[in-house]
Write a structure and sequence with these properties.
By secondary structure, the protein is mainly alpha-helical. The chain is 72% helix and 0% strand.
């Protein structure tokens, strides 16, 4: 009987974590499903076999690079050039890893999957959550569900490709809208505005450089400002930068 009760409590905890993760990832689903469908449509309309869309979504899981890869592959770009481009596009994930709560994940498989499934959207979502609320199961469920949304959206796009035009007005703004919502949620949950101010400053500075280098410059400036703020906080006796 005690073992049965323990198992029941564990099952209840797993279900509770799944429900929380499902609720957490609603904004991600609203961005990933239509954008994934757009990717699926793009793959089919580019002349590639339909299964490359869900296969790419499952094994690569890097939205911006997947869109870019379709054009590179159909243009016959050498693999070495594609590899260099992939490194350049996804280099920002190095910065994400500095604050990703990897220590919450205990098993080796969970950690490996956590690293693989780290995306812009899941990172932004986790950044709005308190570490005290984040369990290993909830974190993994968030990433698994986000992965599912992207694969499912891509598969749906391949099915709809024959009935829909190659491009649909407005879908390109879906991901931007998602980040606006996540940034708003982060602003409301934090007690200080320093992170928001630093983000706005980084974006303003990056705008002067140009669209092609915007993301790399913005992330670099933000990290420099964050490290500077942390150093200043330590010198003034307050090491917690909000």
């Amino acid at each position: 009987m005690p073992d049965s009760e323990t198992r029941q409590e564990r099952d209840d905890t797993v279900r509770a974590d799944f429900r929380r993760a499902l609720r957490d990832t609603v904004p991600v689903a609203m961005g990933y499903v239509p954008l994934g469908a757009t990717f699926g449509i793009l793959v089919v309309k580019s002349g590639l076999a339909w299964y490359w869309a869900p296969l790419s979504a499952a094994l690569i899981f890097a939205g911006s690079m997947e869109f870019l890869a379709v054009g590179l592959i159909t243009a016959g770009t050498p693999l070495l050039q594609i590899a260099v481009m992939t490194l350049a596009v996804n280099f920002r994930h190095i910065f994400y890893g500095l604050s990703f709560p990897l220590e919450v994940l205990r098993s080796k498989f969970a950690r490996l999957y956590g690293i693989f499934a780290l995306t812009d959207e899941t990172y932004s979502l986790l950044a709005t959550m308190s570490r005290s609320e984040l369990t290993a199961r909830r974190l993994t469920f968030i990433q698994v569900l986000s992965h599912f949304y992207w694969v499912g959206g891509s598969l749906a796009g391949t099915v709809l490709a024959s009935a829909l035009p190659p491009s649909i007005e407005g879908l390109g703004f879906v991901l931007t809208a998602l980040f606006v919502v996540l940034a708003q949620e982060c602003f409301y949950k934090r007690t200080g505005i320093s992170a928001t101010v630093m983000g706005l400053a980084a974006g303003t500075i990056a705008l002067t450089v140009g669209e092609r280098s915007f993301l790399a410059v913005a992330i670099t400036v933000f990290v420099v400002l964050l490290l500077g703020g942390y150093g200043l906080a330590r010198r003034t006796g307050n090491a917690h930068v909000r």
